[in-house]
């Protein structure tokens, strides 16, 4: 039971990071066009949560 809960939480976090990446993409592009450097590591977060989700399977 605890394993299923952990898996669901990891999957939810993975989906959340993907959603954040998609939602923030236009904002990051606009900021870069304006010359504002934004050190965002959303791709690293997506990869990390994806790996954790895959490892839980």
Write the layout of secondary structure elements.
Elements: H1 2-33, H2 42-56
Helix pairs in contact: 1-2
Describe the structure.
- This protein starts with a helix and ends with a helix.
- The longest helix is centred in the first third of the chain and has 32 residues.
- With 57 residues, it is an all-alpha fold.
- The model has no long low-confidence stretch (mean pLDDT 78).
- It has one domain.
- Helices cover 82% and strands 0% of the residues.
Q: Stretches where pLDDT falls below 50 for ≥5 residues? A: none
Q: Output mean pLDDT.
A: 78
Strand content: under 5%
Q: Structural class given helices, strands, pairing?
A: mainly alpha
Query: How many beta-strand runs?
Result: 0
- Tell me the helix content: over 70%
Count of the separate structural domains: 1
Largest sheet features? none
Distance between the termini: 14 Å
Assign an overall shape. elongated
What oligomeric state is this?
A: single chain
Return the string of H and E elements.
HH
What's the number of helices?
Answer: 2
Q: How much is the radius of gyration in Å?
A: 14 Å
Quick structural overview:
The chain has 57 residues and is mainly alpha-helical. The protein has helices at 2-33, 42-56.
What are its keywords?
57 residues; mainly alpha; elongated
């Amino acid at each position: 039971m605890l394993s299923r809960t952990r898996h669901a939480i990891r999957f939810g976090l993975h989906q959340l990071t993907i959603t954040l990446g998609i939602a923030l993409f236009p904002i990051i592009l606009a900021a870069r066009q304006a010359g504002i450097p934004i050190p965002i590591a959303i791709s690293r977060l997506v990869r990390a949560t994806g790996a954790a989700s895959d490892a839980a399977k």
